[in-house]
């Protein structure tokens, strides 16, 4: 898989040229709480990660794709993680880097492309995600595409000096 094409965006594999973009996304302290990151990543670590990004999802149990607009501008990242072939499930994460590019439908289209790929090409039965209770934009995005809230993890994450609840959402492919 090189590129998944949508109407307004494409999903493509990571390239070595994505170093600066991935470094900016991963080292943005404003979004660390989304992935439970505590420390910045070095250029060296991200470079090594990109050098291994070509490995198969069946080997490394994850897949990260770049969300690009039709001018090839990188907008964000979308991930499959905890890929479990035996049980046919994986976790999903998504981030649009620039706040000015959010709520324009890019995340929705990217998630639709990833869902289709996951169910059609990877043969997954279900996808899940973990979303902070106060992240209403992400909850809206995932529930709009059929994910259901199946649980609330109370005081699950400690951010900015207080505990926050986190929803577990699940989409089972019919």
TrEMBL record:
Origin: domain of life: Bacteria
UniProt keyword annotation of Transferase present: yes
Keywords associated with the record: Transferase
Gene3D superfamilies given in the database record: 3.40.630.30
Domain N-acetyltransferase: 9-170
GO molecular function: acyltransferase activity, transferring groups other than amino-acyl groups
InterPro entries: Acyl_CoA_acyltransferase, GNAT_dom
UniProt KW Nucleus keyword: no
Region forming the signal peptide: none
PANTHER family listed in its UniProt record: GNAT-FAMILY ACETYLTRANSFERASE, SPERMIDINE N(1)-ACETYLTRANSFERASE
Protein name in the entry: N-acetyltransferase
């Amino acid at each position: 898989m090189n590129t998944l094409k949508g109407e307004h965006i494409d999903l493509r594999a990571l390239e070595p040229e994505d170093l600066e973009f991935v470094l900016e996304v991963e080292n943005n302290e404003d979004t660390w709480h989304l992935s439970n990151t505590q420390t910045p990543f070095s250029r060296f670590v991200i470079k090594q990660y990109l050098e291994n990004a070509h490995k198969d999802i069946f080997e490394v149990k994850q897949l990260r794709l770049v969300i690009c607009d039709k001018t090839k501008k990188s907008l964000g990242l979308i991930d499959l993680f905890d890929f479990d072939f035996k049980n046919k499930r994986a976790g999903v994460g998504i981030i649009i880097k620039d706040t000015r590019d959010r709520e324009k439908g890019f995340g929705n289209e990217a998630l639709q492309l990833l869902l289709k790929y996951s169910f059609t090409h990877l043969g997954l039965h279900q996808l899940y995600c973990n979303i902070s209770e106060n992240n209403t934009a992400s909850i809206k995005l995932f529930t709009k595409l059929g994910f259901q809230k199946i649980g609330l993890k109370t005081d699950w994450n400690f951010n900015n000096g207080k505990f926050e609840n986190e929803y577990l959402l699940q989409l089972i492919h019919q």
